[in-house]
Protein: Flavodoxin
Amino acid sequence: MKAIIIYYSRSGNTEKIALQAQKDMKCEIIKIVPEEAYGNYISSCLRVTKEKKAAAAPAFTNPIPDLTDYNMILLGYPIWAQDLPRFVSDFISQCDLTNKIVVPFAAYGMSGINCTMNHLQKLCVNAEIRYPFDSGVFKKGNYDIWIKQVLKECSET
Ligand SMILES: Cc1cc2nc3c(=O)[nH]c(=O)nc-3n(C[C@H](O)[C@H](O)[C@H](O)COP(=O)(O)O)c2cc1C
Structure:
């Protein structure tokens, strides 16, 4: 099975997981880049609140990748306002995930990845979501156990 990592990270926590996973899985990696960077924590929170109210769709700079050759997509994002960042969900909604396995991972403060699962399910209707992983400020995820499961799945099929 061939895997690719697609992620966004503003302050480096999701990126740390993404880069370690890339090392362990020896796979390709794409970082989603918003057209206008979100800046520091406070300005990001203010902007995201404004964007939510206006139902704005901030743009990203990446082209939509051709995922034909990949069976597994590891999708990483920070939890923002109990959700995926809007430009991340817009990016994913434009990818063809038909028959893919999507492995979501997230960095968060308090909320955990579960608060994004309903939305993620809707973005991944033709895909299967497996092995969600998260790591928070007070509750670190067990990366080693997670990546072992993902590597096993990858090598078995
Ligand atoms: C705009 C914004 C909204 C956030 N909303 C949440 C939230 O709803 N729940 C939560 O647990 N953490 C929230 N956080 C905290 C981030 O998820 C957390 O700092 C995460 O580790 C950031 O990952 P990153 O370093 O990959 O950007 C928010 C952070 C920002 C900047």
